[in-house]
Amino acid sequence: MSRYRLSPTPAQEQVLAEHCGHARFVWNLAIEQHAHWKPGRKSGPGFAEQCRQLTQARAEFEWLRGGSIVVQQQALKDFAQAMANFFGKAHRKPTWRKRGQGEGFRIVAVKAGDVRRVSRNVGEVRVAKVGWVRFRWSRAVPGGVKSYRITRDHAGRWHVAFAAIPQPIPAPKTGEVVGVDRGVAVSAALSTGELLVVPTLRDMEKARLLRLLRKLARAKRGSNRRSKVKQAIAKLKARETNRRKDWVEKTSTDLARRFDVIAVEDLKVGYMTRSAKGTLEAPGRNVRQKAGLNRGILAAGWGLLVRRLEHKAPGRVWKIDPRYTSQTCNACKHTARESRESQALFLCVACGWRDNADINAAKNIRDTAVGHTVAARGGAPSGGPVNREPQRDLLLVG
Question: 3-state class of 337 per DSSP?
């Protein structure tokens, strides 16, 4: 997806908001229909039947008929695809959509003339029932666009994302392998000795966010003051999210260009960031500490970094077993929990090797990947980098 910032006029923004409401309404109706299904009952209506029901509903309700049939039918199409992904165990079950959360709709069957460039920094996209809406031409729009999605975030900003398959970044063909250790204090430590940290809110922004949160706690629910405070908080949160995404894009591109093989720990981020609150019968322990750790993991962009690496360097991203990578000395390979003296210091109790703990773990990850590469080619595993181009089919080993 290539995303751009939309700049609709107030009149256009009103119609876009109506499209979002119609898409949300149709989606939630589909959710309600399938919520009544139980084993032994007749299955819920499929996409074709729901489209016929939508036609009947548009004939009966004028407010629904005034919207775009393309937007409403596509919401049903997206729901059908979401259910197929759920039954195929590729995604979680679709849930209700709430007003102000995840607002958006999709337009398909886009023609060649529906996206055009107006000036150096301004482009336009044709939207059903809206007309030409301007967006910031921050980079070239990918060719052959067949569909796009318009969204509105918590901060009230509109974006358009064009669906396109990006071209992978070619390997440098130097034979270099890098290990990447992800953490909370240091977002990504490389086996080359580099320590990379996701940029967050500045001190002044953090102080302002704290003041706004206190103000929100005192504001009356449903008041205009509360809505304004929530809008200000959303803008700060969106700024932090944008910085994290920008860091991920730049870091993943840099790694894909510099190294032939990128080795990362095979971490189940979804399981690691689950809540520890438990249930009434079996309440969890250290819930606040676990919640803080979860926020730190998500703020470091662990999952997003690996996902973008796999997009930009397909077949060149290795997932390594994370067990004992932080407790093993990279110099003598002795494993001991006591060697990890602190979050930042690794001091081997066997040979006295001293290094940054995260960098030491990244080197172990790199060496494991190198060993798998050499073994796959029929040679003896070694601890140094492979001085020839890794083969694409061999990169799937391990």
Answer: helix
Mean pLDDT of the chain: 86
Place of tokens 């360097």: 313
Helix locations, the chain, DSSP H = 10-35, 47-60, 62-65, 69-87, 203-218, 224-258, 269-272, 287-299, 302-312, 357-376
Query: Choosing from 181, 260, 310, 367, which is the catalytic residue?
Result: 181
pLDDT tier at 158, thresholds 50, 70, 90: very high
203 is catalytic: no
Q: Are 340 and 357 in contact (CB under 8 A)?
A: yes
- Specify whether 181 is catalytic: yes
Q: What are the domain boundaries of the chain? A: 2-34+44-162, 177-198+229-396
Per-residue pLDDT of 329-356, as tens digits, reads 999 999 998 998 887 899 999 999 899 9
Residue 158 has a CB neighbour count (10 Å cut-off) of 22
Residue 42: pLDDT band with limits 50, 70, 90: confident
